[in-house]
Amino acid sequence: MKPGIHPAYGPVVFRDTASGTAFLTRSTMTADKTVDWEDGNTYPVVDVEISSASHPFYTGTARVLDTAGRVEKFQRRYGAC
């Protein structure tokens, strides 16, 4: 790899503002805020609005919204194949 053109890759804490959970991983993202982690070290923290801890698909709370009977209309039109 060509030196000097790649961003720094290091440990970063991502904190989910919706659920309050946080996880430590490696990333090229940077942040001005820092947090003291469980291991006693200080890491940059990036606040995210949604993660796998709060996303409905991953938490199992996802719902299928049927507006105006579109699912039934599709089933009538094309039948159960």
TrEMBL record:
Signal peptide: none annotated. This is Large ribosomal subunit protein bL31B. Keywords: Ribonucleoprotein, Ribosomal protein. The keyword Transmembrane helix does not apply. The lineage of its organism: Bacteria, Bacillati, Actinomycetota, Actinomycetes, Kitasatosporales. Transmembrane segments: none annotated. PANTHER family: 50S RIBOSOMAL PROTEIN L31, CHLOROPLASTIC, LARGE RIBOSOMAL SUBUNIT PROTEIN BL31C. It comes from Streptomyces polychromogenes. Part of the 50S ribosomal subunit. The keyword Membrane does not apply. InterPro entries: Ribosomal_bL28/bL31-like_sf (IPR034704), Ribosomal_bL31 (IPR002150), Ribosomal_bL31_B (IPR027493), Ribosomal_bL31_sf (IPR042105). GO terms for cellular component: ribosome. Belongs to the bacterial ribosomal protein bL31 family. Type B subfamily. It holds the Pfam family Ribosomal_L31.
